[in-house]
Amino acid sequence: MSTHDPVRRRLLKGVLAGGLTAPLAGLLARSARAQSGGAAAKVIFVYIPDGCSQPHWHPSGSEYDFSLPAMTQPLASVSDDLVFVRGLNMYSGGSTHEGGIRKVLTATNEVSLDVFIGQYYREQSAHASIHLGVASSHENGAGYVSYLGEEQPITPEDNPLRAFERLFGTPGEVSDISARRRLSILDAAQEDLARIRSQLGQTERDKLELHEESLRAVENRVLASAEEPIGSCANPDWNRSGWAVPEGYNTYPNYWNRDDQFAEVSRLQLDLSVLALQCDLTRVVTLQFSHAVSPTSLADEIGIDQRHHDSSHYDASNEDSIQNFIGWKRWYCAQFAYLVNALKNVETSNGSLLDDTVIFLCSELGHSSRHDHRDMPFVLAGRGGGLGTGRFLDFRSANGGDGESHSKLLVSLGNAAGIPIESFGYTGHGSGPLSGLYT
Fold this sequence. Notes:
The chain is of the alpha/beta class. It has 17 helices and 15 strands. The chain has a single domain (6-170, 249-416), classed as Alkaline Phosphatase, subunit A (3-Layer(aba) Sandwich), CATH 3.40.720. It has helices at 6-16, 24-27, 32-36, 54-57, 96-103, 113-120, 160-168, 177-182, 185-188, 190-197, 202-227, 262-278, 299-302, 308-312, 323-344, 398-401, 406-416, and strands spanning 42-47, 60-61, 66-67, 82-86, 88-89, 130-134, 147-149, 152-153, 284-289, 347-348, 351-352, 357-362, 378-381, 391-394, 404-405. The chain has a seven-stranded mixed β-sheet, sandwiched between helices. It has a two-stranded antiparallel sheet with strand order 2-3. A two-stranded parallel ribbon has the order 5-15. The longest helix is centred in the middle third of the chain and has 26 residues, at 202-227. InterPro entries: DUF1552 (IPR011447), TAT_signal (IPR006311). Residues 186-213 form a coiled coil. Keywords: Coiled coil.
């Protein structure tokens, strides 16, 4: 990080201190490499909606000898590549679905961790961070997990074909690079931007500069993709099923947001997440499945007629009523297992892409029927940054039996990504990383 980059310096101050002006030297006191014991990891954030039922989600047993209950049973085949974490609570900020999705990756910061990591490494890849969705924008009144700044959510790209085109591009009609630069929207608008900038306060100028940087990154990516292929990823074998939007389709909802397309779009977006890291297009991918208060129905796929959010409001005293919700969570866990195996199948100089990556599976609620933010359903995967896998870590006894803050887990993920932070957002239960994650 260049210390002469004022926007980046202010971003670090605001994000790491949760909006406070603590000295940067104090915030960056600890070496990330010393924290993680390995090279900086690539990171995938995977969000699934509407919480869980803890007895049916969390393992039972000891750190290395544990068994999985019904909801997470599909993860048994990849459990050696996972870390199950229990006893983490999300404090402060809003409550219920909307507050939970707002803070699961922010811990009440203005900027979410995925965006923060991406901005930290933005000069090293074509895309600072990539945000994909599966029907994440369909009937979404509860919000998104990624934030560029205060109340500036990022809407994921739900159409996998459009996402692929944005990542890999197509050769442009204008071959001369200088001619294409003359077509830059930002260059043409500099006079107007300067006038607007002169009328803004420092906070708003920072936001404008971040937006300009994001647009410039898109322009540079288009130029790069038109000039030369991306190594072995010049012609990636991706959409093997030939999935496409039917010609002339113009019906609500968008074809890619339909329930009967949810499973296929899920698989395409999972494959695209792996491909983006494999091709070094970014260091950070966020994949948001649906959204809080999810209206999704997968009757044909999993044989459950009840919509996801409806099933999450089971009667906790009636075990029979929870079976639909268990079926839903098993389906999501199967998708996560697919992602883990897909990363394992990509060879790298360190072994596999899974060895270079950390994945964070999260949701916005703890107990779905109570709408609380305690004992959250978090799972980690991969060995990036030296994560010690094949374990179950229970933090319920921490802080006198109150549990640990999930913000410490976010610190740990930032450290694994190579960023020496001591805090990220909420610090009411202390700062520093979550103990025991890394070997």
